[in-house]
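=== Structural record ===
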Amino acid sequence: MDRRRSAVGALALSGCTSAAWESVDFTVGATTADGAEAGRTVVTAGNRPLVGFDEGVALVALRHVRVLRRALFMARGPERLVVALHDGTTFAVAEGGPGTMTVLALSVIDGELELRAEPFPRSTHDGDVFAAFGFVLSAPTPGT
């Protein structure tokens, strides 16, 4: 996506069941659509999560996207993963089959987003998928 689309509004991903992220300072965390969390949350200057879920939709705060190094979004459910931008642009990612699921990898390169859909074998745990893509969760902050 070009710089303008990579910096305005929020990237919304429906059909997503879990997400992981890594910030430019290598803080890594993950969350699921049902509210389970692991690792550390990265918050924006407005004290909102850089990546998170709101009513079952995964959101990436694009205004602060330069803080994000990469993210991973998994679609384990029956719904197709659909990506929507603030200007109404949407695109759908091919759904997985009985033995595969769709994983959408997001990278931030010089302020622009690169999205890549990957088929991935359904695994028993999200941690297996995170590990395959090189995500190692940060230790939680003491007291949280």
